[in-house]
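Example 4.3 (complexes with small molecules)
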Amino acid sequence: MRKKIVTGNWKMNHDLAQTEMFLVDLKKQVLPEEVTVMIAPAFTNLNHAFNSLREHPVTVAAQNMHQNNNGAFTGEVSAEMLKSLGVETVIIGHSERRAQFNETNEILSEKVKTAIANKMTVIFCVGEELEERKQNNHLKLIESQLTEGVFQQPETAWKNIVIAYEPVWAIGTGETATPQQAQEMHQHIRTVIANKYSKSTANDVSILYGGSVKPNNASEIFNQPDVDGGLIGGASLEVESFMKIVNAF
Ligand code: 13P
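Answer. The structure with 1,3-dihydroxyacetonephosphate bound is encoded below.
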């Protein structure tokens, strides 16, 4: 079932005390029933956030995980470790992971495979650089990121896959895709999924937009027919702006 989702990707922000302050405030808020609200704190704060939100309808997600279940991978965290905390949702393929940590489509495909095998929900990120858009190559590029990253999965896995379209040029820049640009790409993503799997799977998948979503622009983006919510960076760090976006549908 296609869901409305707003996920806060905190990236490398908020230490334990700041996380606690956020959670205390968040728990006072009334959340709209029809929106799935998620936050993705740093690994070090996942345990605290998960336990703090145990009685609360907010999902705690991880920002990344390793493709192996265990082994000699210094500094890495596995799906099994996340699950042992109760964390069952993971962001995979964020453009910062692709660009700064050399995560290729091949590695990401392994990560997706491991997450799905561990019965986790995957938020799989795709997005083009500005140059690729200028060369009018963006639709093809996103199709290849999907083909190489997630299309190895059987159709049944798609009940646990969410796609996040995050144009790299819009991340942290204050420049968002226009609602029309977002809609065009989201519709394209749905068509590509329909061609590979089926119309019903394509209709059921939630596709989030990310890239400088703020309280003042969330509504017009979320109102597009193929946009099911957002993956929010900077504006998810404060409860007030995050809640305005959660309530922007
Ligand atoms: P900003 O909202 O800060 O542009 O970040 C978007 C993002 O990368 C979320 O994953």
